[in-house]
Amino acid sequence: MSEEITSTAFFLLDERIQRFIWAQGWEALRDAQERAIPLLIKGDCDVIIAAATAAGKTEAAFFPALTHLLALKEPGLIVYVSPLKALINDQFGRLDLLCELLEVPVWPWHGDISSSTKTRFLSKREGVLLITPESMEALLCNRGSSVSAVFERTAFFIIDELHAFIGSERGKQMQSLLHRIETNLGRRVPRIGLSATLGDMQLAASFLRPGNGPAPILIESRESGAELKILVKGYEEPSFVQSSSHDGDTQDSEETITSAHVASHLFKVLRGSNNLIFPNSRREVERYTYLLNKMCATEQVPNEFWPHHGSLSKEIRSETEAALKQKEHPATAICTNTLELGIDIGAVRSVVQIGPPPSVASLRQRLGRSGRRKGEAAILRGYCIEHAVDTRSSFSTELRLSTVQMAAMISLLTKNWFEPPRAHGMHLSTLIQQILSLIAQRGGATIGQAYTQLCGLGMPFEGVSKEEFMVLVRHLGSKELLTQDSSGLLLHGRLGEKFVNHYSFYAAFNVDEEFRIINGGRLLGTLPISQMLTVGQRILFAGKTWLVEDIDEAQKSIHVVRTRGGVPPSFSGGSGRVHTMVRQEMRKILESNGKLPYLDVVAQRFLDEAREAYIHKDLANQVLIEQGNELLVLTWHGDAANETIACFLRRRGYVATLAGPGVEVIKAGRSSDDILAALLDAAVDEPPSFDILLKDATNLQQQKWDWALPDNLLRTAYASLYLDIDEAFRWIKCLDTNQVRNKSFSSAPTDNDVSGFH
User: Fold this and answer.
1) 229 φ/ψ sector (left φ>0, alpha ψ -120 to 50, else beta)
2) CA-closest candidate to residue 144, choices 437, 430, 433
3) Do 398 and 248 meet the contact criterion of CB atoms below 8 Å apart?
4) Is the distance from CB of 538 to CB of 528 less than 8 angstroms?
5) What would the pLDDT profile of 385-418 be if each residue is shown by its tens digit?
6) Do the beta carbons of residue 689 and residue 644 sit within 8 Å?
7) 740: left (phi over 0), alpha (psi -120 to 50) or beta
8) Dihedral sign (CA 56, 61, 64, 69)
9) DSSP H or E stretch at residue 308
């Protein structure tokens, strides 16, 4: 830092930190640091710092927090909470040098840290503690009587990657843990939230500190991110009759061919630099890793392509991270969202997205990895794979929905919009865990104590009524998770004690699970299921259409039989729940006529064909799309509203499922008029309760402890997280009754219709 710098914030820092900044050769403090330091150095308020990746958020929190710590008369403690063990390891490496100069100890604490390190921290209880929510949970469960002593010197809680917690089970768990610690301490501890992606700052503020009291101060960095360069390439899967294998099943050869074309282009443009490739599933990670490794072997060049996803061992993931960090040889990771958060993997030249990302927020987070070097642009390479249109093409294929969704998400990204998290879900699964944890911490609790500390005014589970809590506690007793002694004290039941004493208890979330798809006793494969399923609905798997015969939730199995004819269904697992804003942007793009400069020739052709199909079908005015035995109710709304509309129809006896920008309904001998009448009837009725709406729904157990919920609370919890009854009801009420009743239907294409779309 040179003498012409006139930063007032810089001179508020401890002199040793100033010297450290000088030694690092910094020319100036970043915007977020300039604004955060004067606020945090006092140590008396909550602050959220939102800034682009590599904009210095960590330093914006730690420089003033450490300065405050050094000014205290007695040793103090900073507790840094991270969603990832790998991020803790990175932060330890970044902080250790500075804190060694300050003579402040740094303590990483997670499942891979030795017990001797943890014992040394517990004897000192000062410095900087880097910890995951799971390890914090273990501390409260196993050292309940000494929680106050462990955290008595805490001056700050720093929560990194705040967006990753909001609206999730772990986020609700973290809220509860921080509140329980503060309850033991009898005082508020200032909280600092750090994030690169926050769709709603006010929502983030209410998440960081639920309840009444001073709201967190919000700092949004004014520094703009790097220049963004985008190229989206289109690839068309040919339409031909596949050869059959010996057991009568068709091969996915055309998918392999198209994937190989994509891999070939990736091999050509990425070699020699560091990059991240995001397919939309672990299966695709494996596919592209295999193809790219094979190309390296064929060309007799060193391998540059490494896999990274949650099912791989820690050693394999570490190898990939190490390959990205070292500077001697280029490396590209093919990954899931495991490399989306802030693990320090160095600068990458470009980010590759194969197919639409799970969300705009996810795309922004991924892009934050690129363009981190001064003067370098952030580069996004998108790949859209579409099926060739033929006489049996689905609505999704004709509308090129994958390409249009990718374009819509990029459009919203450039407008700086991204999805606000659903922060108001009930998260009753996590409440069960926290009841069991609180009992472990305190050695027992009365129903009143548990309710007040977890569900009272301003508490993490405030929305749960006393009546609902009582129903839940009684049900947990019937499941042998809880028992009550003669004095009324809640204790662990036989199963509750078994669960709490196992290390897996500390995580509030399940490891990603997939349902097994079984046909006639033969396993076809697995599929992630993030929405409710219904017996009688059709699903697409391995390029074929299957009819759901039975759903075994306990065994995570779906039993199917082949079904032929009709248009292939839209449902095929999915990689994320789509927001209404994305679908509305898709519609805007389809109704416009300008070229998108970042699309290559093939991708632009896809968009032109989609727009032609949109006009041909008069989709600007159509709501009901005839598809033979199915009817598509076209809403252009998000999955939360569409799934709610599907529930309305299920209540009236229809098999209805999510289908991209609408809801697919199986007619089963009934007419489109009948389905329309059912929708209009729903508009006349008052919106039903969640319990009634989901009365016959299956596959609602999405979270770790959902199996232990009574049925009515399971339905209520699911609806609070995945449905939007208000938005669905508004859409139904806005239906143009006269236009729809006048048979404003669009039909499935005939052979003549298709010819114009090539």
Assistant:
1) beta
2) 437
3) no
4) no
5) 999 998 888 889 999 999 999 999 999 999 989 8
6) no
7) alpha
8) negative
9) strand 305-308
Cβ atoms 587, 640 nearer than 8 A: no
**In the 3-class helix/strand/coil scheme, how is 101-162 assigned residue by residue?**
HHCCCEEEECCCCCHHHHHHHHHHCCEEEEECHHHHHHHHHHCHHHHHHHHCCEEEEEECCH
70-to-32, 46, 95, 130, 413 alpha-carbon distances in Å = 22, 19, 15, 18, 41
Count the helices and strands in the chain (H runs, E runs). 29, 25
Which CA distances in Å does 414 have to 34, 93, 233, 363, 376? 27, 34, 18, 11, 18
Q: Where does residue 671 rank: exposed (0-12), middle (13-18), buried (19+ CB within 10 A)?
A: exposed
Closest CA to 699 of 681, 677, 676, 715: 715
| Strands lying side by side in the sheet with 662-666 | 655-659, 662-666, 630-634, 624-627, 745-746
Neighbours of 731 (CB within 10 A): 22
- Reference 699, options 727, 726, 718, 720; nearest CA is 718
Q: CB count, 10 Å around CB of 119?
A: 9
- The token pair at 688 is 């039903």
Give CA–CA dist 208/49, Å, rounded.
Answer: 12
As a whole number of angstroms, the distance between CA 533 and CA 514 comes to: 13
Q: Are 209 and 48 in contact (CB under 8 A)?
A: no
**pLDDT tens track for 540-580:** 665 567 888 888 877 778 898 888 655 555 554 445 789 99
Ramachandran assignment for 499, one of left (phi > 0), alpha (psi -120 to 50 degrees), beta (any other): alpha
Q: Which residues on adjacent β-strands are paired with residue 561?
A: 547
Q: What is the mean pLDDT of the chain?
A: 86
**pTM value?**
0.84
Count other C-beta atoms under 10 Å from residue 345's C-beta. Answer: 22
Whole-angstrom distance, CA of residue 610 vs CA of residue 603: 11
Tokens standing for residue 403: 């390409």
Sign of the CA dihedral with 713 first, then 717, 718, and 723 last = positive
Provide the 10 A C-beta neighbour count for residue 494: 10
Six-digit token pair at 98?
A: 């500075």
β-strand pairing of 544-552 with 624-627: unpaired
Question: Do 72 and 126 contact (CB within 8 A), yes or no?
Answer: no
Please give the pLDDT value at position 126.
95
Q: Rounded to 5 degrees, what are φ and ψ at 644?
A: -65, -45
Question: Could you tell me whether strands 154-159 and 191-195 are parallel, antiparallel, or unpaired per DSSP bridges?
Answer: parallel
- Are 38 and 67 a contacting pair, CB within 8 Å? no
Residue 480: per-residue pLDDT: 97
Quick count: other Cβ atoms within 10 Å of Cβ 249? 16
Paired residues of 79 in beta bridges: 129, 157
The structure tokens listed for 123 are: 């004897």
Longest dimension (CA), the chain: 84
Residue 529: CB partners within 8 Å, gap ≥ 6? 514, 515, 558, 573, 699
Residue 358 has pLDDT above 70, yes or no: yes
Q: Return d(Cα 224, Cα 217) in angstroms, integer.
A: 21
Neighbour tally for 4: CB within 10 Å: 7
Q: Using alpha carbons, select from 160, 130, 156 the residue that is nearest to residue 46.
A: 156
Q: Is residue 666 helix, strand or coil? A: strand
**Helix (H/G/I), strand (E/B), else coil: 455:** helix
DSSP-derived 3-state class of residue 340: coil
